[in-house]
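We keep the chain:
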Amino acid sequence: MDPNVKGIPDFWYTIFKNVAMLSEMMQEHDEPIIKCLQDIRVQMHEDPFGFTLEFHFAPNEFFTNTILTKEYSMKCKPDDDNPLEFEGPEIYSCKGCEINWKKGKNVTVKTIKKKQKHKSRGSVRIVTKSVQADSFFNFFSPPAVPEDPDSDIQNLLTADFEIGHYIRERVVSRAVLIYTGEGLDDDDDDYEEEEDSYSDEDSGTEEVSDAED
């Protein structure tokens, strides 16, 4: 073991692997970055009331940030119109942070190539574009809160709020027990791996009208 290493090697990486919710979010290309994670801290604040998750990283080849943050604002007062429905503090918004990726190291973006066929001439061209890739680090770029409470984006934010709350309440406070496996929730033992089903869009062919010339 390297005598210059401080703490337990791969401590937080092991926790990510042990917690089903985090393991599902972490992709294979995220793993070398998560191995650089040195600590997760919770900072509480009062105005507005809420908390911030701080992810502290060692210097690495992927980004220049030493700390990535995710801030959650919480509602602590009952609604004036429906005071009896108040069930305690709840998260109502969140804000991520900008990740300063080093050149060619952004794991949240992937480049795809598509064939486009011209309608009249029949010629084919290759178009390259960047699209979002699955990654744990999309966690730091949440969408804005929509006006429609029933929208798909709101559903994504609801899931995001649950993740933030879980990290604060269950992961940070029980990190050592989760690392050893003693503090795992029963649900984490009940998950089974399933193969993802998806369509390969990278080799699709599109027709292009004359208007694109």
